[in-house]
Amino acid sequence: MGIALATLGVGVLVIALIALRSPNGRGPVAKVAATTKATTSTSPASSKSTSKPATTTAQTTPASGKLPLVVLNNTQTAGLAGQAKDRFETGGWTVTGTGTLSNDIASTCAYYDPASPGAQAAARALQTQFPAIKRVMPKFAELPAGPIVVVLTSDYS
User: Fold this and answer.
1) Which residues contact 9 (CB under 8 A, 6 or more apart)?
2) Fewer CB in 10 Å around end: N or C, the chain?
3) Shortest CA distance to 34 belongs to which of 107, 100, 85?
4) Torsion of CA 86, 87, 88, 91, to 10 degrees
5) Cα 56–134–67 angle (5° rounding)?
6) φ and ψ at 107, to 5 degrees?
7) 121, containing H or E segment
8) How far apart are CA 52 and CA 97, in angstroms?
9) Around 93, how many Cα atoms within 13 Å sit in the side-chain half-sphere?
10) What pTM was computed for the model?
11) 10 Å Cβ neighbour count for 83?
């Protein structure tokens, strides 16, 4: 009886861990610090005085199909989101905010909002232009607002 209960307990634990890592089969559950949304903002090192917060979304889709991005650093490398922001902007993309994220993300990913027209295609175009983005996936709830959120992991170069 005791062995059966122990086996059942281990089975429930395994199923719970799988469910927590991939809710609805859509990706990892965010372990976003309470300060993530507060720290998700335009880099203070930016010289632009008209910067917008990360939660601002574009009112119109640019003719180029390049939707605005939010870039989050999910590494221990300070300033990585700012460096990526500069690269993306040099490539013609608009970055509305940068910040940090503490999560168990497998690899650098462009998360798109399925409700934003053209977001998936724009995320794929971003990945094609910047091969350091390893995956394109639908956004999960804990990410900030915006049609595309790029989460940088240790594989980003």
Assistant:
1) none
2) N
3) 100
4) 120
5) 25
6) -155, 165
7) helix 119-129
8) 7
9) 26
10) 0.63
11) 16
| Residues 55-114 pLDDT 10s | 333 334 444 579 999 999 999 999 999 999 999 999 999 999 999 999 999 999 999 999
| pLDDT over 70 (residue 141) | yes
Query: Could you tell me which residues come within 8 angstroms of residue 97 by beta carbon, excluding any fewer than 6 positions away?
Result: 40, 41, 42, 52, 53, 54, 55, 56, 70, 71, 144, 146
Residue with tokens 């009112």: 59
The phi, psi pair for 41, rounded to 5°, reads: -150, 175
Residue 102 token pair: 């503490």
pLDDT for residue 67: 95
Cβ atoms 149, 120 nearer than 8 A:
no
**Residue recorded with tokens 């059942």:** 8
Q: Which of 36, 73, 79 is nearest to 55 (CA)?
A: 36
